[in-house]
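Possible race condition, two jobs.
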Amino acid sequence: MTDLPSTEDLPIPAGSPEVPPAEGEAEAKAEVGVGPWEGEWPDGEHWDPDLLRDGDRRNVVDQYRYWKHDAIVADLDSKRHEFHIAIENWQHDLNIGTVVRTANAFLAKEVHIIGRRRWNRRGAMVTDRYQHVRHHPTVEDFVQWAQGEGLAVIGIDIFPDSVPLETYDLPKKCVLVFGQEGPGLTPEVHEAAVATLSIEQFGSTRSMNAASAAAIAMHAWVRRHVFEQHV
């Protein structure tokens, strides 16, 4: 009986992740987006002539390829959902950029920054160009604005009086509020909220990342009011 070679004796295929690239060999990088428009240019005010000529390398869905920035925002504005997102920013929270990016993905009406005006935009991946962001210097200012707009203020955090997000019927017109990573919602927001919701967890940690919690809560709203999935 002939012995089969061990896997250690077999040659490793070129391009395998275990084989480092040859010295001086440049690694191929996938191009983002599309190149210049091929053929006769389309008609319409929403097309961007520079992008048609040079290509569109932006992080946008195919529907908006070659569109002007203002035209994309206007189209998004025509179909934004009725929920808002707010996050407190007293310690220059690094989560805010990711929250803005997710709010853009779920087409939130607006994102509200409570506290410091400046926030770290790196996590937003330029999506803040397409997402309306409003600043409120104080919790009082934010609450007055929300009440004037007829929006229910819904806090997301773990408090003794929190109720499960999974069984709460989210109102259609609301603003979901998130606190700082670590300290969570301030007492002022907790007091102003018509309800505070917690996200059920099954592991060993007491809390989860604020950006992750925001994504879960936004998706819960979408399931309820876009797909009409009742709790």
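Job #2 (started ~2 s after job #1):
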Amino acid sequence: MPDSQPLSDEMRARLLAQPELILADRDLMRALIGAREAEVGENVIDIRGRAMQALESRLDRLESAHESVISAAYDNQSGMNTIHRAVLSLLEPMEFEGFLENLELAVAPILRVETLRLVMESGGALPQPQASGPLIVAPAGTVAELISGGRRMPRGDDIVLRRAASQTLPFHGEARAPIRSEALLPLDLGPGRFPALLLMGSGDVGRFNPAQGTDLLRFFGQVFRLVLISWLRA
């Protein structure tokens, strides 16, 4: 093993004046710890080296957690901006027909979904509905059937996020991409009115899943409900 070369006076003076040059370099610190452990031998534990390794591991975890928090905050802010834009778009139309058209032409692209359907029940006998536009009029009981999706019913006012169910695919109709996940927002239109449902469909299988939060979608659904009720009263 060749003899180690001593530090030059200039380099030694610089390191003594700025020891943080070493402390801030992780690779250099690891090399120093390794050299120290090799010097003392395998039978001697260097407590300082072990402590530094533990601190380094903890720092890595803290940095990872910090990055996750920043990423989550950014995603939440981005989601809020998207919902705010969609709400403003809901308020723009001046007539009900324009309100319905706007769902497909503006609101759906803002929300980055392939389909956005309003399902409204009627007390009359109607044929099995097929999606041909943003508004679908269906027989009484349809909303409950769509929400259940062949599974146990959730609480009545719960937003449902899941993979696309066979029961809802005819309501999505034609889309730019096959519908793989969906969000169902129940709408209570008040006493004397049948329930309604806002149905969103995405071609991304991971876009809507039960583990996601629903606060932003719930806010959007509440605004949509109030806007729809105002049109029904007109």
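The radius of gyration is 30 Å.
Logs attached separately.
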